[in-house]
Amino acid sequence: MATHSSILAWRILWTERPGGSQSIGSQRVSKIPRTRNLTSVSEFFLMGLSDDAELQPLLCVLFLSMYMVTVLGNLLIILAITSDPHLYTPMYFFLSNLSLVDIGFISTTIPKMIVDIQSHNRVIYCEGCLTQMSIFILFACMDCMLITVMAYDRFVAICHPLHYAVIMNPRLCCSLVLVSFCVSLLDSQVHNAIVLQVTCFKDVEISSFFCDPSQLLNLACSDTFTNNIVSYTIGAMTGFLSISGIIFSYYKILVSILRVPSSGGMYKAFATCGSHLAVVCLFYGTSLGVYLSSAISQSPKKDAAASVVYTVVTPMLNPFIYSLRNKDIKRALWRFLISTNSS
């Protein structure tokens, strides 16, 4: 594989200026200094997690294994829920949607990364980069919204158990998922529109293994203060509404549980939302950790490594959290595996 210095020499641009580039085969070798502004960029270069050639096979095997475990685990959750009529409840309906979103979330970044390692080619077309960024934000926001919806579901189940079936009817459940998708789609398209307004780039090297929207804005050579304000405002509003909904739901749940006279009743109430609470802590804990690490550390490589936590580790652990702590899921998985083997 090419060394880091040779990789930088083969940065691929789409800039037609006198003496700006020369054609070699199907690629263009840039002669433009890194400080000059670049316009009409058609391709970006993903720097990845490491430039060490010896680490590439290990990274490929590691991420391929994590990807397969994530897809298989979430797929088993979906199949177990859809194959067991006893799990046709709002909680498991939202859980199956969360598993589906997690599969899409990790599939947005990891397959591309594995192909790049195998092909020794980290180039991504501008259209592909924008598409990956939009889908990534869509699934990330959808994850966030569904976790909030599941918190509301636990709030109704514990605080209003007698009216649970009436309140959480199929129409409301489908509407909540649809609203989550629409809000996520709007969020992704706003970020996409912000990046499309950038007409000039300082460089084509993205210091990550995927098209991170913040990294793309950092490459802009024009003033992106307004774009950053809009981007962070939209993100903050989405995050604030989601976190506020979760905090409100669990505040009401805690107040309701403390009113239960018996310790057995309190334990049962806590057990019904234990898995979801663990997912909330994992999702927002890793996201907050990545944000703080990127704010403190100015190393792009460390930021890229930290982003692995919420883009790969969180979707991979969600099925284990729900399957290990939920007896209904365990029984459904066991029945599904037995019926599959017998057939």
Mean pLDDT over the residues:
80
- Overall structural class, as computed from helix and strand content, comes to mainly alpha
Distance from N terminus to C terminus (CA atoms, Å) equals 47 Å
Helix content: over 70%
Summarize the structure in words.
- The protein is mostly helical and 343 residues long.
- Helices cover 71% and strands 5% of the residues.
- It has helices at residues 4-9, 56-83, 90-107, 110-119, 126-159, 164-167, 170-196, 213-218, 225-258, 263-296, 300-325, 327-342; strands spanning 21-24, 27-30, 43-46, 123-125, 205-206.
- Strand 1 and strand 2 form a beta hairpin.
- The longest helix has 34 residues, at 126-159.
- The chain is globular.
- The chain starts with a helix and ends with a helix.
- Residues 1-36 have low confidence and may be disordered.
- InterPro entries: GPCR_Rhodpsn, GPCR_Rhodpsn_7TM, Olfact_rcpt.
- Its main location: membrane.
- This is Olfactory receptor.
